[in-house]
Request: fold
Amino acid sequence: MSRQTRRSFLKTSTAGLAGTFAAPAILSARSPNETVRIAGAGVGGKGWVDINGAAKHGQVVAFCDVETGENRRGGYRAAAEKWSDAKVFTDFRKMLDQEGKSIDALTVSTPDHMHAPITMLALQRGIAVYTQKPLTRTVYEARQLTTAAAEAGVSTQMGNQHHSGKGYRTLVEIVQGGHLGKIKAAHTWSNRPIWPQGIDRPEGSDPVPDHFDWDLWLGVADERPYKKGVYHPFKWRGWYDFGAGALGDMGCHIIDPVVWSLDLGPAKSVSYEGPEPNAETFPEWEILTYRFPGTKYTTGDQFEMVWYDGGKKPSAEGSHLPGDSPLPANGVLLIGEEGSLVCGHGQTPKVYPEEKFASSDLPQVEGLDHYGVWIDGVKTGKTPNSHFGYAGPLTETVLLGVVASRVGHGEELKWDSENLRFTNSTVANQYVKDDYRTGWEIKGLS
Reply:
């Protein structure tokens, strides 16, 4: 079957409120009986989870990874053994150039700084994409991928898998069903970082292991010496050039049910509390206050959501929780007129006061297969639940806090979503977009 009949390039316009994008009206679709041909960019650690999750619904035909030795989980060698017929690469650009016509769907599971470049090249080839959270490292990248996905008309999904889980789906039904009354405030928190932050770049360099392509790992980021155990694996999350800190790791999970259940549009502003910014890494802890226009699910014309990390948590004051009620390590607290809700990351929501809701007929919603929803979109043209038209603006919201943490203390940063700029801070605007290093320019992102 020809490439054109396998995947149509149907362009649709973006629509909706400033900074908010609708899903494509029509997604390109293949025959439901055809096997979806899957590739993976990054197959160690979370990449191993992602490509295996997708492989349940299709056939792995290619993958790439910059580390050809043993990884923490799975990895290059394990993938080559499991999918012995798949084409194997270290460079994602070569994989897409040589095998792009044989790939229907791609998982992107790399450090944050390479999410947007790989995803954009796939979208430009009409390939459906499942990209890990956060969708991108910068606000500008998120906006560009949202637009590109709408134009490509392919199935897209961000890897915030709890969006498909029973817990968050049930939370949304409870809130939007009015069981708590209108929501007065939201608190979100994480026990991250569990890697070093608030540190400076080390001096010197170490020999690069034979099985590791350091230059490919750096990708679009500025060149720097390799240091063993400093950036790779996993510790890259704390460095500005590669990750988005605790907020980038967990924000697209934990902020998701707040934005989703309350139907929040773009934030109007964000402010930061925490240590003074470091030149290289995110702070050891932070408290960020986002302000949104109110919606039909909230009280008042303005709504506040607060994010905490690095060991900070909200107080139960003003909520319906018992004073000694423990909060989970990662979670969300919604305070409503008639009751409050706590939902731990990946858990089932609990509603308070317990005696009031003990006999209530609260909704229970079953979970979905997050990868299956995405592959179903490839086959049928149905729009996945965390498509880039939703995930892109959610990522923008999360990353506004990343910008605030880099600016540090000072006045409330006012956000103009339509024009993708802060109206009162030239310093903050420097962090909306980053340049890619020479030789790594990507059309639509550079």
Confidence is low (pLDDT under 50) at residues 1-20. Residues 388-407 form the longest helix (20 residues). The CA atoms of residues 113 and 137 lie 5 Å apart.
